[in-house]
């Protein structure tokens, strides 16, 4: 009976996606030149922003997971992450990866941990949703410097993005307390409690050794597999971005003029959505709050990217949507609350009026047309990549220090 319901429930979605695909093809044939420009814009965003920001971190994640690093840090951080977020200690590796590399690196790391049998499916689902952040390159270089003309505003949006994401994770932890208790036995079976006679550092070293021995690949084989898997993931991400760039252009061109274009772009794709919001003629506090909300939601395109990673591994994505909504709402409110005091302390760092200096428009509210986004140059990309790598190292070192401090305080 359950299989019949599933089969019956899949028919409407199949028809819907089939009809949408036909309509999209018709629109492309109707205006092939504009569709080509839109897909080229998606390709430019992927090549100039997503690819260099993600590839090194994805490769590094694969190598460190195979070497047992994530398992070792998981043993050290287990008491802290369980208490605050209801997640296993291996979140201490997925979280720094998420806030430095951005999505879908965190989803890839969570799926790999689940495939290795280190966490349950529910833990992997929550871990991917809580550690889902946009990369600092998007917020600081692209939005702050390129869209708004103020790098300081990009750092403010980055701080709010991180704070609201952690707050959303804590809220999700409270909302899923009943479900968490039902999965407690599964977690204990996957990760039995270690003997208390051993120190936590020794247990971490043992876990790393066991994980490395279980993997068994040499460095050459490991590096090749990591690069191949990472490039395949990025190609999937690029395909989604190209398709959604065309979809956004088609929808904005076809829908009535009273529907604001930024709402369509922000709902579907974070890069085009944030640029459309940045062009609004509204008070800067409202524009920044809307930017935070779009970044917290991150777009339906990001949801499909994460789902393409989690679903093949047998991991659900229902909590991902809930956490995205909470993240976006918190970011909007926190930005508005912080705007007035920060504008007094840092009057030169925040815009006085809505941004109107940028003449290159991706989604124009008047013509509802399409041109090219201002993208960062390679020097900016290199500088931001260096910042992300240093940030990742500092976060990992800080987590180790926090663990040792907490251990000494509990004695």
TrEMBL record:
Ranges annotated as spanning the membrane: 15-33, 45-70, 90-114, 126-147, 153-175, 240-265, 285-304, 325-342, 385-405
Keywords: Membrane, Transmembrane, Transmembrane helix
Domain Nucleoside transporter/FeoB GTPase Gate, first and last residues per copy: 49-146
Pfam family, one: Gate
Protein known as: Sporulation integral membrane protein YlbJ
């Amino acid at each position: 009976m359950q299989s019949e319901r599933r089969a019956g429930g899949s028919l409407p979605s199949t028809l819907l996606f089939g009809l949408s695909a036909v309509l999209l093809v018709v629109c492309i044939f109707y205006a092939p030149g504009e569709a080509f420009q839109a897909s080229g814009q998606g390709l430019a965003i992927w090549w100039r922003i997503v690819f260099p920001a993600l590839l090194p971190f994805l490769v590094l994640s694969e190598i460190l997971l195979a070497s047992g690093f994530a398992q070792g840090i998981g043993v050290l951080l287990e008491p802290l992450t369980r208490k605050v977020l209801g997640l296993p200690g291996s979140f201490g590796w997925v979280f720094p990866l998420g806030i430095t590399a951005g999505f879908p690196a965190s989803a890839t790391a969570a799926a790999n941990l689940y495939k290795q049998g280190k966490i349950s499916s529910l833990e992997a689902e929550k871990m991917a949703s809580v550690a889902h952040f946009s990369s600092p390159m998007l917020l600081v270089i692209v939005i702050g410097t390129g869209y708004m003309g103020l790098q300081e505003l990009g750092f403010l949006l980055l701080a709010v993005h991180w704070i609201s994401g952690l707050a959303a994770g804590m809220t999700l932890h409270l909302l899923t307390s009943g479900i968490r208790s039902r999965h407690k036995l599964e977690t204990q079976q996957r990760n039995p409690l270690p003997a208390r006679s051993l120190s936590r550092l020794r247990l971490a070293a043992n876990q790393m050794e066991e994980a490395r021995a279980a993997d068994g690949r040499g460095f050459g084989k490991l590096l090749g597999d990591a690069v191949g898997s990472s490039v395949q993931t990025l190609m999937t991400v690029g395909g989604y971005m190209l398709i959604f760039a065309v979809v956004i252009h088609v929808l904005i061109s076809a829908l009535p003029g009273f529907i604001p274009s930024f709402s369509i772009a922000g709902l579907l794709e974070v890069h085009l959505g944030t640029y459309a919001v940045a062009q609004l003629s509204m008070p800067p506090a409202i524009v920044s709050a809307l930017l935070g909300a779009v970044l917290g939601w991150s777009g339906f395109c990001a949801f499909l990217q994460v789902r393409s990673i989690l679903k093949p591994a047998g991991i659900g994505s229902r909590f991902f949507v809930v956490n995205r909504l909470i993240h976006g709402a918190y970011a909007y409110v926190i930005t508005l609350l912080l705007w007035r005091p920060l504008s007094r302390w840092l009057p030169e760092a925040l815009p006085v009026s809505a941004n109107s200096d940028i003449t290159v428009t991706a989604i124009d509210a008047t013509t509802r047309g399409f041109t090219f986004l201002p993208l960062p140059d390679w020097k900016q990309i290199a500088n931001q990549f260096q910042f992300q790598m240093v940030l990742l190292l500092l976060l990992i070192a800080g987590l180790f220090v926090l663990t040792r401090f907490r251990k000494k305080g509990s004695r």
